[in-house]
Each structure stands twice: as C-alpha cells, then as structure tokens.
C-alpha cells in the first residue's frame, strides 16, 4: 500500500513563506515524476509544479519565480518552498507521485490527502 503524506500547510500573511513536504511510503519500486497541484472550491485542480527523478522542473506561470520545487530521492520526499505568497495562492495543495509499486507493476498516479494553505491578513 502506497501512501503520500503532506505537511506544512497553514495560515500565512501576504508576502510570507511556507514550505510544504510530502513523503511517499509503502511498497515503492521507483518514482518518476513528483509534483504539487492545488484546488479551490468550484474550480478544477491545477498544476503548481513538477519535478522528475533527474531534477527537471516545471512550474505554472502564476508561481514561477516565487515557488521552488525540490526532492530527496533517497527519502521519497518532495518539497515546495513558497515565497511571496499572495491571497490567490489560497487553496488545498495536493502532492502527486507517478510511481511503480513493484518492478513488475505498471506506473500509476498516487495522491496525498491535501493540505490547506491560506494566505490572508
């Protein structure tokens, strides 16, 4: 059983910073891309940032230059450093991992339970 557990969300003032973490655990053979997505009520879940196993990154235009994604492959963990936060960054942030549970199983997406980020004064 694979689990993704996020931490680090909370309430922060505009201009502040937060760091999200997501650790993947359980039966894991290999992890390809890990990433962060976010969703607000009534809207579709949107990509925030992704990072491949070799460190290539991709960011949504709205967060480029403010957010930084990184990962620790040895610990199956991905991070999202969020700086210069804006009220429009308020959302539930979800961790995603494209992984193979065993060497013989197909790759598939796994999701965390989500962590709330609220940017407000």
Structure description:
The protein has 121 residues and is mainly β. Helix content is 0%, strand content 55%. It has strands at 3-7, 10-12, 18-25, 30-39, 46-51, 57-59, 67-72, 77-82, 91-100, 108-111, 115-119. Strands 2, 4, 5, 6, 9, 10 and 11 form a seven-stranded mixed sheet that branches. A hairpin with a 6-residue loop joins strand 4 (30-39) and strand 5 (46-51). The protein is elongated.
Give the helix tally: 0
> What is the share of helical residues?
under 10%
Low-confidence stretches: none
Number of strands: 11
Rg (C-alpha, Å) = 14 Å
How do the helices and strands follow one another from N- to C-terminus? EEEEEEEEEEE
Q: Mean pLDDT across all residues, rounded?
A: 96
Shape, per Cα inertia axes: elongated
Structural key phrases:
mainly beta, 121 residues, 0% helix, four-stranded antiparallel beta sheet
In short, what is this structure?
The chain is an all-beta fold and 121 residues long.
What is the strand and helix layout of this fold?
Elements: E1 3-7, E2 10-12, E3 18-25, E4 30-39, E5 46-51, E6 57-59, E7 67-72, E8 77-82, E9 91-100, E10 108-111, E11 115-119
Parallel strand pairs: 2-11
Antiparallel strand pairs: 1-3, 3-8, 4-5, 4-9, 5-6, 7-8, 9-10, 9-11
């Amino acid at each position: 059983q694979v689990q993704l557990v996020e931490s680090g969300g909370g309430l922060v003032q505009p201009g502040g910073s937060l760091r999200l973490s997501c650790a993947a655990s359980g039966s894991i053979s290999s992890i390809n891309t890990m990433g962060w997505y976010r969703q607000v009520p009534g809207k579709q879940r949107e990509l925030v940032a992704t990072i491949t196993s070799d460190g290539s990154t991709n960011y949504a235009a709205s967060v480029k230059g403010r957010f930084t994604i990184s990962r620790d492959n040895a610990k199956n963990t991905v991070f999202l450093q969020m700086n210069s936060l804006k009220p429009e960054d308020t959302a539930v942030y979800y961790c995603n991992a494209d992984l193979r549970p065993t060497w013989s199983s197909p790759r598939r997406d796994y999701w965390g339970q989500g962590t709330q980020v609220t940017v407000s004064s």
